[in-house]
């Protein structure tokens, strides 16, 4: 399989014969065998944060995913002075969740468990092989050669065709092949990684609103393509696959609350009852216009952000407040316009919205019908992606790093710390 980019065309004399000159850059897949991937997991000394993916908080430890590469383990006992302790090098890691002393993450097709009771002695304790049938990425396929873990750019090539029978793809400057379509202007900035594209004691920690892993009732719920998988983690270091059920195409996020699981998708929100943990039962579906859709829940209300964007296939940018007092019949209460809202979080009545390039916004949501009239803070000049509000400390990720805020006094929310992203330079 080869991906072609940046096609430019010259046609001459198209009556019977013509000359077609195409100049393009092309990418070839780089394969890694499953044995190589499974033996390459390492616990390393801390390293700079090169990019930020999903986040999870447990006890006094913040776990930050670096998409495709692994997980940063940060001692967050003092949020004003977080200390990076270890880096778990896990190829193909995009999601994470924690229960008790065990961290779970994906590694392409596998689910991997780590013992984290001693941050200076983190080690792999279990692995469910081939549990993911839908690798979390575009073009990162699995076949007899292994897993496509990267794409290697090859030099520009010029080809000539002797006649006019060669037909270009009709979209203009876009090549389609091997299940992948890419715009011609992507040749200069195509990124393999961007093309790949989830308390204390024995209980679970707290995840962000964009996560695809969630723990509830002693079970790990994972989104896998159009399906939700159920893994029994009652015995933390011995996960057991129990069930797989089809939800819908376009499912993106998962949020646990009480005895329910809320699944956000590009078409709506799905509510599942997990009174029987290994047999989630659909309660209802709340439909909305097509858009990206993270969801969080607090009490009677669910809060959903919809945003536009290339991968979201929508044009709306808004917050929807949904009354879920009757789970079987969720009803929209109010819709608020935003710039480009991503993740969100709520603690009691304090609502945080990551509004993309318009920054982080905090609101008093005591009156769900007047949230826009009660803004508490607006931090501009940052691209905010997702948040975890917990015990008066807000952990926020953005494109340029990890921010932490003290919101114990909501009339004076203050910045505590910032861990900057240091992009990798080849």
Identify the notable features of this structure and list them briefly.
disordered N terminus; 426 residues; globular; 2 helices
Record the SSE blueprint.
Elements: E1 3-12, E2 17-32, H1 34-39, E3 42-44, E4 55-58, E5 61-66, E6 70-75, E7 83-89, E8 96-99, E9 102-107, E10 110-115, E11 123-128, E12 142-143, E13 146-163, E14 174-177, E15 180-183, H2 192-195, E16 206-207, E17 213-216, E18 219-224, E19 227-232, E20 240-246, E21 251-257, E22 260-265, E23 268-273, E24 281-287, E25 295-298, E26 301-306, E27 318-323, E28 331-337, E29 344-347, E30 350-354, E31 360-364, E32 375-379, E33 384-390, E34 393-398, E35 401-406, E36 414-420
Antiparallel strand pairs: 1-2, 2-13, 3-7, 4-5, 4-16, 5-6, 6-7, 8-9, 9-10, 10-11, 12-13, 14-15, 17-18, 18-19, 19-20, 21-22, 22-23, 23-24, 25-26, 26-27, 27-28, 29-30, 30-31, 31-32, 33-34, 34-35, 35-36
Protein name: LVIVD repeat-containing protein
Account of the 3D structure:
This protein is mainly β and 426 residues long. The protein has helices at residues 34-39, 192-195; strands at 3-12, 17-32, 42-44, 55-58, 61-66, 70-75, 83-89, 96-99, 102-107, 110-115, 123-128, 142-143, 146-163, 174-177, 180-183, 206-207, 213-216, 219-224, 227-232, 240-246, 251-257, 260-265, 268-273, 281-287, 295-298, 301-306, 318-323, 331-337, 344-347, 350-354, 360-364, 375-379, 384-390, 393-398, 401-406, 414-420. The chain is 2% helix and 52% strand. The chain has a 6-stranded antiparallel β-sheet, with no helix packed on it. Strand 18 and strand 19 form a beta hairpin. It is globular, with a radius of gyration of 23 Å. The protein starts with a strand and ends in a 6-residue tail after the last strand.
């Amino acid at each position: 399989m080869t991906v072609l980019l940046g096609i430019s065309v010259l046609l001459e004399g198209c009556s019977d014969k013509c000359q077609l000159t195409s100049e393009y850059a092309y990418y070839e897949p780089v394969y890694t065998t499953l044995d190589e991937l499974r033996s390459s997991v390492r616990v390393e000394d801390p390293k700079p944060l090169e990019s930020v993916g999903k986040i999870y908080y447990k006890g006094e430890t913040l776990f930050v995913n670096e998409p495709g590469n692994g997980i940063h383990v940060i001692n967050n006992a003092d949020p004003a002075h977080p200390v990076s302790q270890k880096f778990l090098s896990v190829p193909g890691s995009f999601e994470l969740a924690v229960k008790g002393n065990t961290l779970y993450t994906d590694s392409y097709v596998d689910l991997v468990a780590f013992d984290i009771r001693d941050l200076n002695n983190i080690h792999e304790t279990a692995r469910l092989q081939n549990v993911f049938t839908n690798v979390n990425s575009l073009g990162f396929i699995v076949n007899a050669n292994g897993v496509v873990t990267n794409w290697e750019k090859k030099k520009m090539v010029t080809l000539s065709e002797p006649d006019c029978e060669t037909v270009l793809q009709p979209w203009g400057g876009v090549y389609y092949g091997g299940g992948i379509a890419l715009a011609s202007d992507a040749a200069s900035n195509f990124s393999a990684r961007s093309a790949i594209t989830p308390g204390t004691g024995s209980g679970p920690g707290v995840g962000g609103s964009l996560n695809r892993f969630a723990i509830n009732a002693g079970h790990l719920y994972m989104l896998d393509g159009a399906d939700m998988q159920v893994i029994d983690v009652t015995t933390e270091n011995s996960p057991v696959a129990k069930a797989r059920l089809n939800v819908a195409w376009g499912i993106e996020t998962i949020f646990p609350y009480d005895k329910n699981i809320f699944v956000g998708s590009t078409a709506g929100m799905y509510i599942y009852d997990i009174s029987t943990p290994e047999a989630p039962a659909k309660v209802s579906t709340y439909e909305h216009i097509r858009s990206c859709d993270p969801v969080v829940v607090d009490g009677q209300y669910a809060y959903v952000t919809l945003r536009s964007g290339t991968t979201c296939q929508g044009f709306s940018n808004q917050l929807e407040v949904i009354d879920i007092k009757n789970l079987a019949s969720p009803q929209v209460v109010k819709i608020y316009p935003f710039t480009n809202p991503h993740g969100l979080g709520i603690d009691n009545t304090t609502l945080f919205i990551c509004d993309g390039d318009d920054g982080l916004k905090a609101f008093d949501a005591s009156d769900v019908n007047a949230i826009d009239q009660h803004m508490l803070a607006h931090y501009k000049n940052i691209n905010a992606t997702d948040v975890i509000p917990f015990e008066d400390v807000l952990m926020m990720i953005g494109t340029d790093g990890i921010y932490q805020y003290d919101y114990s006094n909501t009339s004076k929310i203050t910045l505590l710390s910032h861990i900057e992203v240091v992009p990798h330079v080849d």
